[in-house]
UniProtKB/TrEMBL annotation:
Keywords: Cell membrane, Glycoprotein, GPI-anchor, Lipoprotein, Membrane, Signal. It is a lipid-anchor; GPI-anchor. This is FAS1 domain-containing protein. The keyword Disulfide bond does not apply. Residues 211-230 have a biased composition (Low complexity). GO terms for biological process: plant-type secondary cell wall biogenesis. Residues 203-243 are annotated as: Disordered. It comes from Linum tenue. May be a cell surface adhesion protein. It is found in: Cell membrane. Pfam families: Fasciclin (PF02469). Belongs to the fasciclin-like AGP family. Residues 1-21 form the signal peptide.
Length: 267
């Protein structure tokens, strides 16, 4: 009979095209469906002194933390609490900018005040960059130095995080470290609290366009960049999903063609 032989021909073509499509997409050997790799257990201990001496340049800030012994307070918070710590670290160039009026000088403050200024640069909790969206709705935010005139205001706009202490308006310019329980963010200015320098803030000159010679050496991202160590969901997992996806597609196309053949046989 003519009809069935046509069907057999069609079926053969279907089989052929199925093997062709299989070789065309060439799925790799079946990908075992393993659960997403567990995040590598990182050592919870972060040596803040170590981190601040290799990153930066943050030598001025680290020097003040050490001379005031505030480094021990911060390290203790990082070591021994579940809340963790968030540090705002000014670059060395930010300290050089301080001594020019109307900005006050740190050489003129008492030892106690210097300690408070250092404590003012930290929050007694770990905040990832994304957390600042919510945090900015809770202004004013208490710092390690306290509340009231020791509080900071944050604004969050499309990932750009600005800090306002009254005396200092600056932004987070990069993430040095952001893995629970320790977050360290670079800021462009030293944070000056009203509690030390008074609420009577002199008008600040508009930022001149070019006084950033020192800063221009280091390319500063305008918005904070995520720290490499905090990356979640590695490249590996993405790759395995996509290859699993194409393997699935190959199987599907084969099934569709085979079903087509079977249906034609049944006709
Ligand atoms: C932290 O790092 C500093 C600088 O490398 C080192 O002197 C200090 O001993 C370290 N502290 C601890 C507790 O490991
Ligand atoms: C923090 O932990 C490290 C490692 O366990 C320890 O050597 C260091 O003395 C601790 N520092 C503080 C201030 O708790
Ligand atoms: C240092 O303190 C004195 C007394 O409080 C004050 O008169 C002076 O303006 C201060 N100088 C600077 C540079 O802040
Ligand atoms: C921070 O925000 C609070 C409430 O919005 C406001 O009263 C305070 O003046 C602000 N402080 C600074 C330093 O901008």
């Amino acid at each position: 009979m003519e009809f069935p032989s046509k069907l057999v021909l069609l079926f053969l073509i279907a089989i052929l095209s199925s093997t062709q499509s299989q070789s065309a997409t060439s799925p790799p050997a079946p990908v075992p469906f393993s659960p997403a790799p567990a995040p590598a257990p990182t050592s919870p201990y972060v040596n803040l002194t170590d981190l601040l001496s290799v990153a930066g340049p943050f030598h001025e800030f680290l020097g003040y933390l050490q001379s005031t012994k505030v480094i021990d307070t911060f390290q203790n918070q990082a070591n021994n609490t579940h809340q963790g710590i968030t540090l705002f670290v000014p670059k060395d160039s930010a300290f050089r900018a301080l001594n020019k009026p109307p900005l006050p000088s740190l050489s003129n403050v008492s030892a106690d005040q210097l300690k408070q200024i250092m404590l003012f640069h930290a929050l007694p909790r770990f905040y990832s960059l994304a957390d600042f969206d919510k945090l900015s709705q809770k202004n004013p935010v208490s710092t390690f130095a306290g509340s009231g005139q020791f509080a900071l205001n944050f604004t969050y706009t499309n990932g750009l995080i600005r800090i306002d202490s009254g005396w200092s308006q600056t932004k987070l310019s990069s993430a040095v470290h952001s893995t629970n329980p320790v977050a360290i963010y670079q800021v462009d200015k030293v944070l000056l609290p009203e509690a030390v320098f008074g609420a009577d803030i002199p008008p600040m000159p508009a930022p001149a366009p070019a006084p950033e010679k020192a800063a221009s050496q280091a390319p500063d991202a305008d918005s904070p960049s995520a720290d490499a160590t905090s990356g979640k969901g590695g490249k590996g997992s993405g790759d395995s999903t996509s290859s699993a996806g194409s393997a699935g597609l190959g199987l599907l196309s084969k099934l569709v063609v085979a079903c087509g053949g079977v249906m034609m046989l049944l006709l």
